[in-house]
């Protein structure tokens, strides 16, 4: 694996610890900025790894954000070819939709640090380092998705049963954020200020305190998770 391409929807929601792992492996990482850069001309099979990152829009809102149509088409062709693909938050929802599953509002905002409940398959997967006895992860979403056909469910929370899935051997979808770096959390708190203010029970001081508690462990365990997945993809 030599080259990774990430589709970024929001400047501060970048590849985080995944980017650090790729750099250590000598994998170059380039970003496509959704809404600014053209997605339709991209070769869906070109990058060794495609990463679709998070953002505050819905995977079903192509009427308002037409570039989503091109993203879905790109994902559809790449997934059909079995090329390594990772989706985070909105990216996971986009993968689910590209695989024919429904994506829809979940009815409640899940924002903040909380542990995952790993399924049996999840504990045997690259998500093992993210087990609840190891770390909490950062959640920041209000949408959810049905599990695509032939997908293996890897993780859940009480509010959202579908938190992660693997499809075939080369596609991983994470509803939560395993990539976030603790030192970058202030950018999230600024960029999502309106959403934080509108979500009962969520406060900036509370998010800062939880980041101090869990940020370091997530950075460590998140890197282990991504290393494990990349090893598996390379081996496959």
| Arithmetic mean pLDDT | 97
How many structural domains does the protein architecture include?
A: 1
Q: What CATH first level would be assigned?
A: Alpha Beta
Low-confidence stretches: none
Order of helices and strands: EHEEHEHEEHEEEEHHH
CATH superfamily: Class I glutamine amidotransferase (GATase) domain
Q: Report the helical percentage.
A: 25-40%
Distance between the termini: 12 Å
- In the sheet with the most strands, the strands line up as 2-1-3-4-10-9-8-6
Overall number of strands: 10
Tell me the overall shape: globular
Biggest sheet, in brief? 8 strands, mixed
Compose a concise summary of this entry.
By secondary structure, the protein is an alpha/beta fold. It has 7 helices and 10 strands.
Description:
With 236 residues, the chain is an alpha/beta fold. It has seven helices and ten strands. The protein has an eight-stranded mixed beta sheet with strand order 2-1-3-4-10-9-8-6, sandwiched between helices. The protein has a two-stranded antiparallel ribbon with strand order 5-7. A hairpin with a 7-residue loop joins β8 and β9. It starts with a strand and ends with a helix.
């Amino acid at each position: 694996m030599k080259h990774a391409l990430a589709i970024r929807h929001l400047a501060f929601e970048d590849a985080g610890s995944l980017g650090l792992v790729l750099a250590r492996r000598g994998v170059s990482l380039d970003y496509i900025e959704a809404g600014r850069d053209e997605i339709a001309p991209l070769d869906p099979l070109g990058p060794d790894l495609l990463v679709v990152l998070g953002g505050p829009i819905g995977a079903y809102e192509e009427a308002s954000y037409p570039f989503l149509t091109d993203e879905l088409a790109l994902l559809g062709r790449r997934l059909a070819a079995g090329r390594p693909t990772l989706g985070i938050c909105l990216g996971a929802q986009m993968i689910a939709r590209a695989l024919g599953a429904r994506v829809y509002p979940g009815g409640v905002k899940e924002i903040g640090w909380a542990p995952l409940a790993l399924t049996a398959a999840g504990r045997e997967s690259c998500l093992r380092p993210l087990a609840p006895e190891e770390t909490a992860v950062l959640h920041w979403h209000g949408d959810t998705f049905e599990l695509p056909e032939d997908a293996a469910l890897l993780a859940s929370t009480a509010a959202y049963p579908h938190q992660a899935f693997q499809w075939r051997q080369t596609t991983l979808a994470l509803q939560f954020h395993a990539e976030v770096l603790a030192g970058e959390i202030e950018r999230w708190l600024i960029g999502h200020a309106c959403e934080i203010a509108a979500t009962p029970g969520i406060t900036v001081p509370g998010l800062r305190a939880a980041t101090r508690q869990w940020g370091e462990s997530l950075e460590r365990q998140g890197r282990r998770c991504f290393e494990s997945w990349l090893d598996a993809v390379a081996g496959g």
